[in-house]
Each structure stands twice: as C-alpha cells, then as structure tokens.
Amino acid sequence: MTRPEADRTDQTDQTDRTGEADAGTSGTTEAPPPPLLELRDGLTEVVDTPEALAAYCAALAAGTGPVAIDAERASGYRYSSRAYLVQLRREGAGTALVDPIAFDDLAPLQEAIGETEWILHAATQDLACLAEVGLRPARLFDTELAGRLLGHPKVGLATLVETVLGRRLRKEHSAVDWSTRPLPVPWLEYAALDVEVLVELRSALGAELEEAGKTEWARQEFESLLRFEPNVRAEPWRRVGTHKLRGRRALGAVRALWETRDDIARSRDVSPGRVLPEAAIVAAAEAMPTTRAALLSTPGFKGRGADRYASRWLAAITTALELPDAELPARSPRGDGPPPPRAWADKDPVAARRLVLAREAVAQRAAELRLPTENLLTPDYLRRVLWTPPVERAPQPLAAGVAERLRDLGARPWQVDIVTPIVVEAVLAADVEPADEAPGDPDV
C-alpha cells in the first residue's frame, strides 16, 4: 500500500511580512498581517447519520456552481490512507463535514454531485482516499496545480489564499490525528476553513490562467488528473535509506525488517514509524544483532515496539543471515528505465550530450513560461526519450517520433508541442562529435 506523502501545508505560510520603511524615518514598520479567514456560516454539526447525509445531499443537488472538496487523513498515525473526514462546500448548500467512518460508502454524495466540477487543492493527495469511499470526479480544478502553472513561487493552500485573496488561514491543526473520535471543535473549524474559499480561489486563479494564456494547459492537466493512480514502488523498503550500507546481506536485513514492520503496522493500522523508526532498521542491518540483549542495545531500538516485537525483529535478521546469495536483493533497485544520469557519460557519451543539451533548454523554456521545470515535462519522460530516441534523423520524421514517444509516456498535448522541438534539436546537436569539450555532468 502506498504510504501518504508529506502534508500539503507550506511551513512558510506562518512567516511574517515586513513592510517598507516609512518615508522620513530611519526605521522600518511591519505591515499588519492579512485578516484571518473566518467561517461565514458558522460551524455545522458533523454529518454522521443517514438522515443528515440525505438532507445535505438534497441541498447539494439544489446548489449552484462547482463543489469544493477536501479530505483529512491520519498521516503519521495510521497505516491506511483512508479519509477520516470529508469536507464539501457549494453555493446554496453551505459547508458539510461528513464522517465517512459512519457510512459504508458515500454513494449518495456522488449521486448528488453528478457531473458538477470539483475544486480540490493538491488533488493527487485526496483523490485515492475519496475514491475509496465512492467519490470520483467527472471534472475537476486543482488550485495547487493552477498555482504551479501560473508560476506562483509557493503553492500551499494557506499561501495562495493569502497572496491571491488577501486572507490568512489557520494551519495549526494540519498534523493532528483525524481518526480521533469525537473530533474537537477547533479541528472541525480548521477543516471547514479548508473549503471555505476554494470556490473564490478557483475563480481568481481561473482568471489568471485566462490572462496568461494557460487555460487550455490547465484543462489538459486537470483532465489527466481524472486518471490519476498512486504510484506503487516495486521495492518500497529501499526508501529507508540504504545508501550507507555495505553488501547485499545488509540490504537483505533491511528488506526483512521493513517487511516485518509493515506487517505489524498493517495489522494494527498504525503508522510504521510508530512501530519502529527507519533509523533503527538501518542500524540493525549494520550491526546484525542475534540476541535480544544485543538487539535492544542497537541504536533506535527503544520503546514498546522494539521490545514487544523483539522476537520478530530477530527472526527477520536471522532470515537475512541465512538467505542464499542468489536470493539477496541487488545493490541497485530494479527498473525498466534508463540508467542513472551520472552513468550516461560512460555508457553512452552521445546520450549524455543529448541530456545535457535538452535539460538546459527545457529549464530555460520553463523559466520563460514561468513554470517549474517538472511541470513543463516530467523529468523521467525526458530521460527515457533521450536515452533511446527514434532512429530517424531527418528533422520531420524525428519530430514525429519524439512526439509519439512523449504522448505514449503520458505527456499532455501542450507539453508535447513545446518540448518536441527542444528534444529534436538536442538529438541532432549531440550527434555531432564535439571538438575539444567533454559533455557536462548530466546528473542534477
């Protein structure tokens, strides 16, 4: 199961703003902070009965305009990424805080929303957990992604609300345990505020997109999000931090300990880090303790999780020690893509030149368009096309082949139109052997 990513909140959202110096004075004054965002309609009761859900569904269906939606998970507390609260707001219907744990699914909400556009912030964080309770958008607008396409330097919800709408969001409850029942009133107020101005923010960002000529880009990006599926890593245990370990046997211990911890965490529905820290897994893989005393003296093996499951940790280490060499994990992760960029110069100098040239040109074009480079094109797509470009070298057939490859990988039409000429130019230029210069290091 894919673990939840970092919380969407910008930690910089709470920083003070410093004003300019007053005319005729030598000191500085701080501009007053923007006003705090407040609930216009007050806090409503949590929807946790069939009757309350039916009443809100009727109001939602009768409302007008798009529906603002958000979800709260218990990241850092629970193993699952399920939604523990769903917030909705629509003009004419007001805000609802729905407890999905109280229902088998939220199919009545899905029916009430119908084809209406969703507004989400950082949609990829919430789409999967909303789908689990039966909520899937027919159309959507992602305010975070819109902010990226517009070149906003910070795109956390609180930051965009402040910079675009001139209001300030409270974010003090962003990392609480949303599986708590009953949910405290301050937490519910915080959750309701997350959808309070999403409709207004969507309207403002939509106008910015239109002015910047990026409305069609955004439409294609949002349509792509409708097909979003969380990425599932083939070997998730490698994320523990194995780069300092020596030997495949140590990697085998990390894998065995990680899988043991994952089984425990799943069965208890608690965050894996609360069972055993990742640093402890790495320390045990280095030390390979074989007795309980040695295990519990290993750095990181403190607390109830270390002691309670000591026999299982030792069994995992023993399994790794006894594993035949042929069954130990490879030093590098398996993958179907090109080698790491740092290895390109040795494996294929021409491909390395292609990558250097294309990366520089893509970065420059992204800056001109006021886009993050990764939003102009997913870096992995660029590497794959440049490692094995089409064999044609006549410009037109080469461009057609590059465009086809990019589309097959998942690039949107607007990205293909912009990046294809850059890739073609890099491929053709790299085929010319440089006179006295070696390609730069393609690793970034």
Automatic annotation (TrEMBL):
InterPro entries cross-referenced by the UniProt entry: 3'-5'_exonuclease_dom, Exo_C, HRDC-like_sf, HRDC_dom, HRDC_dom_sf, RNase_D-like, RNaseH-like_sf, RNaseH_sf
HRDC domain location: 247-327
Domain of life: Bacteria
Compositional bias of kind Basic and acidic residues: 1-20
Signal sequence coordinates: none
Annotated stretches, region: Disordered: 1-36, 326-346
PANTHER family noted in UniProt: RIBONUCLEASE D
Protein name (record): HRDC domain-containing protein
